[in-house]
Amino acid sequence: MAITTRLIAKFNSYYAERPVLTIMITNAVLGGIADTVAQSLTVIRQRSLRQPGGVQKDDFLSIELHELDKKIAFSPTELIPASMNLPPPFDFERLTRFMAYGFMMSPVQFHWFSFLSRSFPVTKHSGLIPVLKRVAFDQLMFAPVGLACFFTFMTVAEGGGRRAVTRKFQDVYMPALKANYIIWPAVQLLNFRVIPLQFQIPFVSTVGIAWTAYLSLTNSSDEA
Predict the structure, then answer these.
(1) Are the CB atoms for 222 and 151 separated by under 8 Å?
(2) Distance, CA of 172 to CA of 161 (rounded, Å)
(3) Is residue 103 within 8 Å of residue 28, measured between CB atoms?
(4) Which of 45, 155, 174, 184 gives 20 to 30 Å between its CA and that of 123?
């Protein structure tokens, strides 16, 4: 608890001096954690596929990842690498891409959240309606654009061109957007209603570790 209190105090201090830079660094770190989680899940999934008989009934995590495999079409080279005995090496370039994306998107998120806060102020007498308006604007306007920016950036950073971006959108954009609408409205409702403004982006990024891990798996599933 004491460590958490110190971290919050440090964050508030840095945020008061340089809010945008503080958010950028925080998002970059959390983006790196998310991709590390995603790559770890990939290793677990591949290890379970190498077991005799495939996924074991008592391996809950492997079963969940196996179900994810059914929903997302992974290529054979993604599922079973060239080496059948070793897990795939950690992809530091991919980690860097995720950290760079989190770093560069933070100013946009910062100004967007500030805009929502100014446009729909929350008061004691009108708490719920402005929050619902924030969620609606965020999910109908920012979420589709944000996902488009994510897949475009990742594809281009991986060396893909216009055709690769088009293929990415055809294959994974709509499933990812549908998944977004299942998860994020409730998260943002809590975020805008309870969390102070300076913590809203870090809160989203922290909850988004699992979401970004999903996006990482989705993005990598479509790599040639």
Answers:
(1) no
(2) 16
(3) yes
(4) 184
